[in-house]
């Protein structure tokens, strides 16, 4: 992996995601740095298959595919919701847990499915993980990983955020990620923590 190269103000960076929630959050995190974020969707880039077994592997696959196809640096996020009683699941398969037969995703359905698999475990520990991979057109990649710990709650609470946010209560907090002000989520989230590492090395 070696030393990360840096991005400069005015550089174009492909955000290699087709997930609107992630795109919005990454766009908000990048905005103060003068980096022009272009989404993979807007460039018409295909979505590669996520065949990795870890968040870091999947982020690398997505970032590399976008950087090569667009001939620009690319940043990919692979993230997910992990539950101790499910041995870290749904984890890298979080998006699949919300998949409907027509290929679309419904996170209300996804949360209910995950809850149904849980039973009544004593251990309610849960965490989110985010791996951010920054790939360059020459194939070099740097990966930055962040995590936030807490518990899962049922029923889900709040309409903010996206994905599994309403089911996650961060450690020491009283509001779920679905109830929190976006700024409060950005102060502690897995994505913000991964982004802080990315920022220190690449911005
Ligand atoms: P993937 O990284 O595209 O495979 O999908 C990750 C999935 O994890 C998303 O579709 C969300 O359901 C979930 N996820 C990742 N980050 C967050 C978050 O910040 N809040 C809520 N759900 C998240």
Explain the overall architecture.
By secondary structure, the protein is an alpha/beta fold. It is globular and about 50 Å long. The protein has one domain (12-202): Maf protein, CATH 3.90.950. Strands 1, 2, 3, 4, 5, 6 and 7 form a seven-stranded mixed beta sheet that branches. Helix content is 31%, strand content 23%. Inosinic acid binds at residues 19, 50, 78-81, 94-95, 98, 107, 128, 161-165, 177, 189, 191.
Number of separate helices: 6
Task: Outline the biggest β-sheet.
Answer: 7 strands, mixed
Question: Which radius of gyration do the C-alpha atoms yield?
Answer: 17 Å
Just name the CATH architecture.
Answer: Alpha-Beta Complex
Bound molecules: inosinic acid
User: Mind telling me the CATH class?
Assistant: Alpha Beta
Helix percentage: 25-40%
SSE order in H/E notation? EHEHEEHHEEEHH
């Amino acid at each position: 992996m070696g030393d990360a190269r840096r991005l400069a103000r005015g550089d174009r960076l492909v955000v290699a995601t087709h997930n609107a929630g992630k795109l919005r959050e990454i766009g908000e995190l990048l905005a103060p740095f003068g980096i022009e974020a272009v989404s993979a969707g807007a460039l018409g880039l295909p979505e590669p298959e996520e065949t990795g077994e870890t968040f870091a592997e999947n982020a690398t696959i997505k970032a590399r595919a976008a950087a090569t196809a667009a001939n620009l640096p690319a940043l990919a996020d692979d993230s997910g919701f992990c539950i101790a009683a499910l041995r870290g699941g749904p984890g890298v398969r979080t998006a699949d847990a919300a998949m409907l037969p027509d290929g679309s995703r419904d996170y209300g359905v996804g949360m209910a499915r995950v809850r149904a698999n849980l039973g009544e475990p004593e251990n309610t520990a849960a965490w989110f993980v985010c791996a951010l991979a920054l790939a360059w057109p020459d194939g070099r990649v740097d990966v930055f990983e962040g995590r936030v710990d807490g518990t899962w709650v049922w029923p889900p609470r709040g309409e903010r955020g996206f994905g599994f946010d309403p089911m996650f209560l961060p450690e020491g907090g009283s509001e779920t990620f679905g109830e929190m002000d976006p700024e409060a989520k950005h102060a502690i989230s897995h994505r913000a923590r991964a982004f802080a590492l990315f920022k220190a090395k690449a911005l």
